[in-house]
Design brief:
The chain is of the alpha/beta class and 219 residues long. The protein contains eleven helices and six strands.
């Protein structure tokens, strides 16, 4: 039986992973500069500070590295404030869970201020009982501590009574190995075959609540 649900944000409830894929190019475009092909692959493994150093050196930017970091953050914030959309079916899925009496929370690696902007814009924030971020808790999703903490805050005794909704393979795998029920949510920016292997249920879309609920009721 399901008593609690923990949702990821980017790629799960929000259609936002494409922005993270192109944030470097978006920032350069704001300066009137066209990114060279392959920038995404170069920046992908880097921290924000490393991205700033690379962009400054590769594109001969006059801004300081701190100013570039601030500019990238402004680019991200602008997207969540003015462009981000909910994944298809996300709002009705959350509404259906709440009607069933299931506690719904969010756990994300994205900055709190930014994610709150996105959830407000898409109308999802009122449907969540709480929002937790990795930054606030000092945890990431490569260990199960964040899922345990959020579950306890929901007042759900057992991991087996909690469904975790994730698009990222590493986060889904962490929850799966820790005894949570995992719903893998399809997103083109993650490895779908790998996601299926660490999910009790794979959801190509959030539009089919009845399919999820029939599985959740079984335990």
């Amino acid at each position: 039986m399901i008593r609690g649900a923990i949702f990821d944000a980017d790629g799960t409830l929000l259609d936002s992973m494409g922005m993270w894929d192109t944030v470097g190019a978006r920032y350069l475009a704001s300066l009137g500069i066209m990114a060279q092909p392959g920038l995404r692959a170069i920046l992908f493994p880097m921290s924000l500070a490393e991205c700033a150093v690379y962009l400054k050196e590769a594109y001969h930017l006059p801004q300081s590295c701190q100013a570039i970091e601030d500019g990238i953050n402004d680019t991200i914030r602008s997207f969540y404030c003015t462009e981000v959309e909910a994944k298809p079916g996300a709002k009705t899925f959350l509404e259906a869970l709440r009607r069933k009496g299931v506690a719904c929370t969010l756990a994300t690696a994205t900055d709190r201020a930014v994610i709150l902007e996105g959830l407000t814009r898409t109308g999802l924030l009122p449907l969540l009982d709480a929002v937790y971020t990795c930054g606030d808790l000092g945890m990431d999703k490569r260990s199960p501590g964040i899922f345990h903490y959020v579950r306890e805050q929901m007042g759900v005794a057992a991991a087996s009574e909690t469904w975790v909704f994730e698009d990222a393979v590493h986060a889904a795998s962490t929850a799966y190995q820790a005894g949570y029920r995992v719903a893998g949510v399809a997103d083109p920016y993650s490895d779908q075959e790998a996601l299926k292997k660490v999910s009790h249920l794979y959801l190509p879309t959030l539009n089919d609540f009845s399919r999820f609920w029939s599985q959740a009721e079984k335990g």
